[in-house]
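Worked problem 6 (solution included).
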Amino acid sequence: MKIPFLLSLLTVLPSLAQEPNSLSPEEKEEGFVLLFDGKSLDGWRTYKQEKAKEQWKVVDGAITLTAGGGGDLITAGSYSDFDFRWDWKIAENGNSGVMWRVAETDGPPYLTGPEYQLLDSFDKPNHKYAHELPPGNVAGSLYGLVPGKPDWSKPIGQWNESRLVVQGSKFTLYLNGQLTAEVDTASDEWKAMLAKSKFAKWERFAKEATGHLCLQDHGDVVSFRNLRIKPLKAD
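Solution. The predicted structure is:
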């Protein structure tokens, strides 16, 4: 191979990398659709509101909570069974989450929707959420139910890749390629786990057959991109 051609090839290769907020040919073939166009908040609104509050903005091609007070952000549409994938990064000492099958009730989203935890998972002096670390309520965990490990996360400032598969009564969570939680809400194991948790008396928690996806406003800066979903057939 001639050197000039090699140099030309090396110059072209970066431009062939997939752009954020776009689908690969394989994803298109599989039936994924984008939930975010990289430019606007079309298809998203604040919980129980007609549109997104001003604290939610598109910054550098990412849905970003720039300050607390924006309320939880939900999809305009509802979803039942799906394969949902997204990238996220969070501010130092930050806390957020992604909920699913959220119903718009008189209460907040977490009364119906289980939460895929997002967190600055690394221990440090004066960590604002140090109390979440010992029980394993770190990024990638099924919050309050299935603990996670801090080393699943990438360092603060880097993008993490998450995946959530919801099919019938089964929830499967992944973080950066690592399986982090797998539960079946129809199982005795789940019922026992739930009975020991703070969700035990929440009548509609994790019981909705369909609902909105929800990005949590926990008051800390957090960004999301490459949000894409593939509807699945029920088991």
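Discussion: Residues 32-231 form a domain with the Jelly Rolls fold (CATH 2.60.120.560).
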